[in-house]
C-alpha cells in the first residue's frame, strides 16, 4: 500500500524498473516465439497473423514499455541523489506518470484478450494500419496505449528537467553535474520535443480509423508518406532518447573502475548536445527506399553520417579514460567494456545505412535487425546491466554476487552475439525482415538456426542475472555506503538511502566531490 | 577498419591497464587532452566527408531519374500479396517478370493497396511501392538468367510469400516469349459463335470477377492475379508451394489453408465443378 501511494523518487524509480522488467519478460517471450518459428525454413508453428502480432508487440514493448521506463526509472532514482537533492522537483507528477505508463502497458496487452492484438508493426505504416487493411481493434488499442505512454514520458521528462534545473546542491553549476545527469537532461529535453510528433500522428491515425478521416488515404487525397515523416521525426530522436542515458551510465561506470576521471568531460558533454540536434535532421534515412529525389536524400545522408562524429568522440573518450588507468574487472565493468565493442558494431552498421546506395540494398533486411539489436541490446541493455551491477548496492544495501555475475555476463555475451551477429549475414544474402517464414535457400536455414540457439543461450543468461538480483537482494553481503570507492554524490548517502537522502550534502567544488573529500591533498578543483 | 581501431584500443587498455593486486594508490589523474580530442573529431569528420562524396556519386550512378520524359518500359504493380507487370504492348503478366538482357529498362513501381517494396538484389536498387506515388528504377540484367525477387516492406499477413523471379532473356527469346504470352486475339480459344465449353462458363461464373483467364482477357477486375498460362508456372502463391494439381486443388477447396490470410474467399463449388475447373486451369499452358 505504501508503494501504491509512493511519492518518494526512489520508490517511483524502482516501480518503473520493476514494471520494465515485467514487460521485458513479455517482450522476450515474444522474441523467443519468433525465433522458434524461424528456426528452420517453412515451419508452421504459428500462423502469419500471430507472427505479425509477435513482432509488433515485441518492438512496441521493448521500446515503450522497457527501454524508456527503465531509463526513466534510473533517472528518477539516481538524478536527485547525484545532484545532492532529497526529492524530484515534481514528485506527484513523477508518480502519476508511472501509473499512466503502467495503464498504457496494460491497455496494450489487453488487446490480446480481444483476439486481435496489433499486427501492423511497431511503426504501423499507413495505409496498412488503416481500417480497410487492419480491421480488428488491435491498432486502436496500440494507438490509445501509446498516447498514454507518450503523455507519461513527456511528464516524467519535464519532472527530470525541472529537477536538474532547480534542485542541484549548492556549488554544483551545470558544468559540474555528473555525465549521467547531463545526458538524462539532454534526453529529457529530446523527449519533450520528439514525443508530441508521435502523439499528433496517433491522433491522425485514430481519426482515420474511428472518425472516417482520410489523412493517410491516397484515394481521398491523403498521403501515406505523411505518417512516415511524423513517425520518424519522433522515431529517430527516440533512438538517442534510449541511448543517451545509457551513454551516461557508461560515463559514470568506466571512470570509477578505471580509477581515472572521464577523459575530456567538455567534449563528451558537448557531443551529446550535437547528437541531440543532429538527431532531428536524420529521420528520412528510414525512408531512403521511397522515391523522394536524390538531392533530398543526400541532405539526410550527410546529417546521418555527421552524427557518427559526436558518437565516435564518446567512444574514444571512454577508451582514453581506461588508458593508463588501474582497471578493476567487476561484473559492472565487464558489461561496460562489452558495451563499447558491441555499440561500435551497431554504430558502424548505422553509418552503412547512412550510405544511401547501401541502404537501397540492405534496408528492411535482417541487416537492420542486426543493427538495431547491436545498438539497443548490445548498447542500451548492456549499459543497463552494467548499471544494475553498479548501483544495486546503493539501491538495496547489498552487493551482487560476482561469481554469478561473471557467469551471467559470459552467457549473455555469448548468447547475444551468437543470436544477432549472424543476422548481418542473413541480411547480406537477402533475407527480408518481418517475414514469418522463408524458403529453403542456401544458408538461410543454418544461419537462422544458429540465431535461435544463441537466443536460447541469452535467455539462460538473463534468467541467471535475475536470480543473482533476487538472491543478492536477500542474501547479499552488506555493501556499505561506498563499496566502489566512487566519486559522485549518491555514494555519500546511506545504502539504501533513507527517505531523506542527505542530512548534509558534501561540498561541491568539482565534478568529483567525493574524490575531493578523500584526497584533500590533491582535490580536482585545484588540479583541473 | 574503424572497428579494428576501436577494438584494438579497448583490448589494449583492458589488458595493459588491468589493476594488479590491491594497490591502494590511484593512477595518474588525467582529465583530457584538447589535442587528442580535436584529432578524434577531425579525423572521423574527414572520413565521413569522403564517404559522403562517394555516396552521392554512387547514387547518381545507380538511381533512375524520377522526373524524365522517357516513358516507362515496364509498370510493376504490387498487390497484397502478388505482383503484376504491364508491358507497353498491353500484356498484363502476374508474378514472374520477363525482361530482355542487356537493355536498361525504366521501370515504374506502384502499389494497388498498401506499401510494398520491389527488390531484386542482383539487378536493381530497392524501391518502395507507395499507393498514390510512382517510383522509377533502372532494371537491367547484364546477361540472361533468372534472378530472385521479393517484397521488402512489411505489407501484412503474407509479406513472406511475395517471391517472384525476374527472367532475363536474349532479345530473340524475349520476343518469342512476348508472342507466346500475348497472342493475337484470333488465336484464342473462344472464337465468337462457337459453343462455349462448360469449363469456360464455370470460370466466368466463379472466378472471373477477380481473375483474368487469358492474356487478352479484359473482363476481370484485377483483384487477383491473372491465371493466364497458369500451368506453365513453377510455383503458386508467391513461392509458398509448388505448382502441382494437388496444390492447385487446395486453392479451389480452401484458399485460406493454401496461403493463410490471403484475399481469396472460399468459393462454393461442387466436387464435379472443382474437377472441371482444375482441368481447365491445368490446360492453361
What distinguishing features does this structure have?
heterodimer; A: 528 residues; mainly alpha; Cytochrome C Oxidase, Chain A; 3 domains; 17 helices; B: 285 residues; Immunoglobulin-like; 2 domains; five-stranded mixed sheet; 7 helices
Descriptive report:
The complex is a heterodimer of chains A (528) and B (285). Chain A has 17 helices and no strands. Chain A folds into three domains: 232 residues, Cytochrome C Oxidase, Chain A, CATH 1.20.210; 200 residues, Cytochrome C Oxidase, Chain A (Up-down Bundle); 31 residues, no CATH class. The mean pLDDT of chain A is 95. Chain A has 528 residues and is mostly helical. Chain A is globular. In chain A, α5 packs parallel to α8 and α7 packs across α13. Chain B is of the alpha+beta class and 285 residues long. Chain B folds into two domains: 108 residues, Immunoglobulin-like (Sandwich), CATH 2.60.40.420; 99 residues, Immunoglobulin-like, CATH 2.60.40.420. In chain B, β2 and β3 form a beta hairpin.
Compile the SSE list and pairings.
The complex is a heterodimer of chains A (528) and B (285).
Chain A: H1 9-37, H2 48-82, H3 91-110, H4 138-166, H5 179-211, H6 224-241, H7 244-258, H8 265-279, H9 294-306, H10 308-322, H11 331-354, H12 356-362, H13 366-396, H14 402-428, H15 444-475, H16 513-518, H17 524-527
Chain B: H1 2-16, H2 34-62, E1 74-79, E2 82-86, E3 92-94, E4 97-100, E5 105-111, E6 116-119, E7 127-129, E8 135-139, E9 145-151, E10 164-169, H3 171-181, H4 198-206, E11 235-236, E12 241-242, H5 245-253, H6 255-258, H7 271-283
Parallel strand pairs in B: 1-5, 4-10
Antiparallel strand pairs in B: 1-2, 2-3, 5-8, 6-7, 6-9, 9-10, 11-12
Helix pairs in contact in B: 4-7, 5-7
